[in-house]
Amino acid sequence: MKLFIIWSVFVLVYCLGTNATDQVITIGASLSSEKMEYEFKQAVNNLNKNAIRNHIRFNAATILMDSNPIRSALDICDKLLAQHVFTVVASHPNSTDHSPISVSYTCGYYKIPVVGISARDSAFSDTNVHTMFLRTVPPYSHQADVWVQLLVKLNWHRVIFLYSADEEGRAILSRFQTLAEEFNIKNEPSIKYAPGEKNYSTVLEPILKCTSRVILFSASSEDASTIYRDAETLGMTGEEWAWIVSEQAFFDVYNIPIGFLGVHLVNGTNEVNHIKDAVEVIGDTFTKLIGNENISNPPTGCNESSQWDDGQKVYNALVKTKMEGETGQVSFSEKGDRLNAMYEIMNINGNRRPMSVGLFGHKEEALGLRMMENNLTWPGNVHVKPKGEKISRNLTIVTLKEKPFVEVTPLPKDGHCRPVAPAKHAFPCKNGTHGTKLLNYCCMGYCMDMLAKISEDVLFNFTIHLSKDGLFGSFERHNVSDKKFWNGMMGELMRQEADLIVAPLTINPERANDIDFTKPFKYQGLNILVRKTQKDSSLASFLQPFQDTLWILVGLSVHVVALVLYLLDRFSPFGRFKLAKSDDTEEDALNLSSAMWFSWGVLLNSGIGEGTPRSFSARVLGMVWAGFAMIIVASYTANLAAFLVLDRPEALISGIDDPRLRNPNEKFKYATVKGSAVEMYFKRQVELSTMYRNMENQKKYLTAEAAIEDIRKGELQAFIWDSPRLEYEAASDCDLTTAGDLFGRSGLGIGLPKNSPWTHDVSMAVLRMHESGFMEQLDNRWILVDSKSNCPESNSAPATLGLTNMAGVFMMVAGGIVAGVLLIFIEIAYKRHRGLKEKELELARNAADRWRGNIEKRRTLRQTLQKQKEDQMRANSIHKQPTSKSVPLVTATANTNATKFNSNNAKTVVPPPYRRPSLLEATRESDCLPPPPPMDFRPPGYVPARSGRTVTWHNPSHNPSHSPDNLV
To answer: In CA terms, which of 517, 606, 754, 881 is 20 to 30 Å from 905?
Structure first.
């Protein structure tokens, strides 16, 4: 009664101080208690204090809500609508949680907006039934917003949704499914139960067969107690399990297990704060609305059949209102539901007491989840977050053959795989590509050594099988429908035929949309493999530093200089030619052969022992020629070195921007592996669309081995693939090389199913291997050092001479040897022929010498006889002196017989008959001639006569001593 008197006085004073032109807005309220009525009136009073300048005055009209919906509706008609209320604030009946459904129906019929402050039933979100209802509290179904953020925060993407088969359960499931689809969270499965049952064991048992171990639970308090009891009996509340329950199932439940998570609406039961926020929203709305347009009066009771014309306008303005209130940011959805409400994340600790571990909602212009994960207690009273899925330690690995990452060899007969260097591990693997028959192999390589290390670190067992179709994985259309499916290893992982892909699988956006990748175990890019363009080395390759014209001029210069040297030394008075004729020197003359030898010797830098020019003029030319030879030799040496560098085998193309790739022709063919990440890269890049279309029209390669083999054969000019594999092939086969720089950089990762519980652990294991240097050891062992040792030199090493480059030099030496051998036979034959001639000439010369000796002897004898005859004649003349006039007859006769005269009056001595005639006496005139020569004898034109070192030739026919006139 006192409150009523105080309120009446306040209204009287206020009315006396208020301008009569102010518009009055009456706000009705159906509240739970008198205290709430007082708080409501205080809120309206505060609203009037702030609205004095806006010429608006707010009145308050309140009633207590009856628990009986019929009486509650009658009170609305009789006590509130009669006071011309523009809006109604609705709470709940005292001591009950009944919803203000009667208030919503009654006011909604007359288009009077109702602002609920405690009704959280999802049924009020149906605008077809509750057309004028909005509320400052969110419905229970909005807990799904918090659940989704919790799952994302905890990295759980497979859940089991357990809900009641009523409207509240269906509403929260529907909202969760809508939100979860955005974050790729899947229900496996959604289990519905009937409320009010006494035992739910049969409902819970199928959950034990599911993979997921995260349960989202929506239920009332009564049903929650029963389900908790049965779940604990089935062992579903212990370790490796996780429960996130609704607000109804979290509070007022005595047997909630340890480690369960729940949500609690902040200020959800604080009716005073919600009254203040509701009044503020109404005041703000009417202040803005009346300032822009006129608002008609609402109905005055339930007797009127007409609806309020401006009721919908007021409702729309209320829904659009946004403000900061006592319960946080107050805003509404199109359905009138509260948005951005603040929730508290609750956790049952080891003492079975709920404690706050986080917040979710709008605060300081930020909407999100803030949680202290380290303070969480999980089922089983443990502090280690469950993986969220049933963990099987026996994993299935799918891979494929790709050197050097995975190398496949036949399984030995004893069934034990043994690693072959540089491999450290070898594992048995099956191949199912040959129908249903499984062939056993041994897998080793880069990825297998890495897998062994990861399994030791993460603690799991594994079996390996090769990809059924031998492909990495790409989209392909189904034969029946237009829907695309993944093939290769990707398809097997998507169909849950494998748990991990351990292979050089490129991380790209298309694959990352459907599977999870670990951190890259190797960073790489794309490169182009081509065959080296080895220049053909001819036998004359050592001549290539100079052009043919220069070689011809050099050869011509040698002979011209030799000729000029010979002429200068020949005609110079100080040359060797003149000095050779003098008696005071023994030097040979510089003939043309010696000059040629000197000219070649200077050019080729060989020692000159003899035949050098003597005259000053020839020596000047010799010095100039030596300078010319030095320049030519130095230039040849420098150009030869440069030629060897340029003669290095080069790549056929310069890189990805090469015109032959961008504008291909029919003769130049390049390709990549069909359905690979490289093909996806070219398909995705607009600037490479021309190259992609050209590769589509070329031969299709399903494996890298087939393409590399065609590169070796020359049937394919370029192969575009991952750089580690191409570097390995180029290092192993020195006829192959990579062209240009890397492009399309990416990483190689291990593939896992989406939201796999192993993703985090395997990723951390990969990071630890990077930090410890294990990955670097794998690179050195498989890709860098050991593979490069097969090639004699790297591409950056300086060029060196080989047999192919200098084969012409060796052939020239061999030609010189053969020419020398042939010339020695010619010289021997010539010398033999010349020796026979000289022997014949020597015989003729000896015969002539004997003949000349005989002639000399006969001449000497003749002279002697002549002298004797003269002496005798002188003696005879003396005897004819008077003292001795008679001559004996016998002597005269003897002398007469002894001396005869020939027809030429030449005296011939005739030997006496009593003795044998001497050689001189027996020789006739014809006997003085030389013996006749042989039939085939040809007299030489000149006869050599030797005198010291000088050899001169004389014609015997010119010798006076050989003249026939000198013959006796």
So the answer is: 881
Asked if residues 126 and 108 have their Cβ atoms less than 8 Å apart, the reply is no
The closest alpha carbon to 724, from 518, 504, 530, 507, belongs to 504
The CA-atom distances, in angstroms, between 594 and each of 398, 591, 947 are 83, 5, 23
Binding site annotation covers 506?
A: yes
Q: Using CB atoms within 10 A of its CB, is residue 246 exposed (0-12), middle (13-18) or buried (19+)?
A: buried
pLDDT tens per residue across span 253-277: 888 999 999 999 998 889 999 999 9
Peptide bond into 404 cis (omega under 30): yes
Q: Is the peptide bond before 422 cis (omega within 30 degrees of 0)?
A: yes
572-575-577-579 Cα dihedral, nearest 10 degrees = 120
Element at 803 (helix H, strand E): helix 803-879
Q: Which two tokens stand for residue 241?
A: 């399990």
Q: Do residues 282 and 50 make contact, with C-beta atoms less than 8 angstroms apart?
A: no
Q: Give me the amino acid identity at 121.
A: D
Look up residue 17 and give its two tokens.
């101080």
DSSP letter assigned to residue 242:
E
Residue 900: count of CB within 10 angstroms of its CB: 11
Say whether 504 counts as a known binding-site residue. Answer: yes
Reported as a single tens digit per residue, the pLDDT across 476-496 is: 765 555 566 888 899 999 888
State the sign of the Cα–Cα–Cα–Cα dihedral 557, 562, 564, 565.
Answer: positive
From the list 193, 279, 207, 273, the residue with the least C-alpha distance to 243 is: 207
The string of DSSP letters for 70-85 reads HHHHHHIIIIIGGGTE
Report the DSSP beta bridge partners of residue 482.
none
- DSSP H or E stretch at residue 181: helix 167-182
Q: How far apart (Å, rounded) are the C-alpha atoms in residues 419 and 721?
A: 27
Question: Do 694 and 664 touch, CB atoms closer than 8 A?
Answer: yes
Residues 98, 68 contacting (CB under 8 angstroms) = no
C-alpha to C-alpha distance for 283 and 611, rounded to whole angstroms: 128
List Cα–Cα distances, 843 to 36, 747, 857, 939, 956, in angstroms.
Answer: 164, 100, 21, 11, 15
β-pair type (158-164, 186-193): parallel
Cα separation values, 837 from 363, 679, 830, 833, 937, Å: 129, 89, 11, 7, 10
Compute the average pLDDT of residues 883-902. Answer: 41
Within 8 A by CB and 6+ apart from 25, the residues are 56, 57, 58, 59, 86, 286, 290
One-letter amino acid identity for 608? I
pLDDT in tens, 787-825: 444 555 544 444 555 555 555 555 655 665 666 567 667
Q: How far is CA 955 from the centre of its chain?
A: 92
Q: What are the phi and psi torsion angles at 913 (to 5°)? A: -70, -15
CB contact at 8 A, 942 and 955: yes
DSSP letter, residue 527? E
Residue-level length of the chain: 968
373 touches 385 (CB < 8 A) = yes
For the residues of 355-394, what is the DSSP string, one character each? Answer: EEEEEEEEETTEEEEEE-GGG--BTTTB-SPP-SB---SE
The residue among 484, 525, 477 whose CA lies nearest residue 504 is 525
Strand runs labelled E in 91-196: 114-116, 133-135, 158-164, 186-193
The two most distant CA atoms of the chain are separated, in Å, by 235
Q: Is pLDDT of 898 > 70? A: no
Look up the pTM and report it: 0.54
Q: 């306040």: which residue's tokens?
A: 10
At 707, which helix (H) or strand (E)? Answer: helix 704-713
Q: How far is CA 580 from CA 122, 574, 949, 953, in A?
A: 135, 10, 11, 16
Say which amino acid occupies 674. Answer: K
Closest CA to 338 of 171, 141, 137, 144: 137
